[in-house]
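Task: encode each sequence below as structure tokens.

Item 1
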Amino acid sequence: MNIDDRILKLDSFKELDRETFEVVENQFRESIGKIYNSNEYEKKIELYKQKIICLESINHYRKILVDLGLREREIMRLSKEIHQEASLFMMQRIDAFLKERRDKIIEQINREFVWYQGLKDVASKGAVVLNKGKNILNKTFEMANINKSIDVKDFDNRMLLERLLDENMEQKDVANNLNNILEQTFNFILDEWNKKINFHINALYERDKKIINKIKENKIKFQIDSTGQIFITGITSAVVGTLGLAAGWHTLTYALANVFPPIAIFTAIAVVFSGISNKEKAKERLITQVEEVFREYRRQILYLIDEERFEDLNGYCIYDYFGFINDAIANYYLDSIKNLYFETDFEEINEIIIAYETHMGLIEEALG
């Protein structure tokens, strides 16, 4: 039987790194030694043994690639899932903030509204000339059966809705509240990842106790509590440090205040003159205007989150930046998981598989 010299010298594996080559060499050493001093029948047996080694090794490395492929899909699914959960978390808090302010304004309207509010609002816009026309205006109130004489102090030169929006939705205050919600959302993402990572590592540990040794070798910080639960630390904090996010979101307050529309735009949405003919109908119309103003607030905030790009967020809009954070943590964690299996990358694993396949091809040629 003609044994190709490349089989005996393991030429197919020569391009691999030294450590991997030594592992392969140990696998075949005994068989190669026997081939040198065997008859045709025994050589054939040794070649079949080598073929089995190749098949088992290929299957081992392919299984690693399949497992890691599954882990990668699972981790990227987690990234999308947490991104969606964070977006829901953020919008629930934005809606709660807007509802709290809207309800407060409506409560103030119910408390302060008078059925001649429309006249007051129109008059308030002309308060600068009110003294000159006070007698005429008082006559108007008298004709409308309003038992009151009006004076300048009744007005602060703002209509009721404008004043209430000024008091409850001042631009910087809105920006501060949005900023706090974004910071809460950021912390929500980190907390969710920590929970998911802890759960995932515990699942791996339960399936393969040896995994804990790899965790130690790769210096991933962990602790085990009295029930045997493993808690991985340092992954999300390491990512935050790497991305320079530790400073938080306070730098966005000024940017948010400057891109968010001023109160005047929202006031302009409402047609404030409510009439004097029907008290309840006029008040309902004013409340309807408040609700429309807050629907517009929500639309503007959604646009700001989805479209406005911020220099402080690496040029991302807020929604995409949360996606960027999630993907960064996912990729960092995926690299950590890879290191629990092996200390090489996908490309090198594929090179090892190709080397075994090449060696097996030489064996099949020798076997005829």
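Item 2
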Amino acid sequence: MKYIRFATAVICVFIIFCGFASAAEEIEEQIQHAEITVGAGDSIVLDQGYSINVIDINSENGDLLIEVYVDEKKVEQGIVKENKPFRYLKTIEDEDDEETDYLIFNVSLQDTEEKDGETYSEIIIKQYIDPEIAPDDYLISEKSDKSNKSLSMIIGKETELKEDYTIKATDLDDKTVTITLRKNGNIVKMTEDLGEGDVFAYTRKNGDRLRTIFMGEIDTIFETTDSDHVILKKVIQKTDKVMGEGLEIKIEVPEKSPANEKAIISYTLDGYADKVEIYVDGNLIDQRKEVYEDTYDAVTDRLSTGEYNIKAKAITSEGMVVSESALLIVGDIAKEESPGNGAAAIIEKAKNVTSSASEAVDKIYETANTLEKTPAPGAFFAIFILLGAWVCCRRR
């Protein structure tokens, strides 16, 4: 009986401990939410001087052995298993010598894949603020309530954020929505079927550096007679300036392509894309998957004389879409005079008319001067001859 009571007590203590650990995750402010794929030997640089090194990956189940560093000093080591996340708790002592555990990391295993004989694991990294370290700079949306970091959106309407970002909720269906984040009009992250409690996050990677640029948890989705709304809570937006320009694609077409021949379209990708598509007047002519930073070529079909709109589109698994367009001229096309050229032609014609008029005036003056210099009888004789010629012409 004593053993049963002891076991019961142990279970209760364990449940209470787990409850406190879970509560820590709810109380602390989350500053990173990244879904990434890693391999053995990868290093991930995060906020507040923290980093995570992937020491090894189990090829059979994808389990990871990781180490946590802060300012290049190792502070923790552990294993990430399926259904058993790795949690790094930091114990901080206050002025009254009371100790409090703060959750700093929660790393969970989502999936594994084999590529080129190596095992890669898809993980989610949740980083929470370390109260002993000054936080990195944050940018909160201008339209958010900074006191509780919430953001209210009307479904179907774009909401402006800082640094040329916008966010929009669409496709309300059974209490779920699609959220799309754009930068300068380009889609950088789109997630479908998000419901209350789900986190929408956009994370950028530059080398080993990882930064969650925007993050918010769906608090409420509600409908009114006039409009439908989504409220995000725990919203953060961080500057992306330290992360470089991000994914870009640049397209090059020949200045002029012969008619009835194929044309070569070159495009340069600055970053990684899961897929790149090339279109000619809206028709897909080329598609490449798992595209790394480099320059590539796409070949069109034989094109007849005319103008064609060429578009290159790079797409990532996160829903980011960046594109660029160019005009391809095929064959000899008569160029219409531009407004500038037309104006120049009118001015030139006006100059010609003015010149002719000026010449005519000069001729009149010359004639008048000649008549002035001609003696009166001579002038009379000249007029008489002109009148005679006029009468003869009339009779005919």
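Check on item 2: The CA atoms of residues 338 and 344 lie 10 Å apart. The longest helix spans residues 339-373.
End of task.
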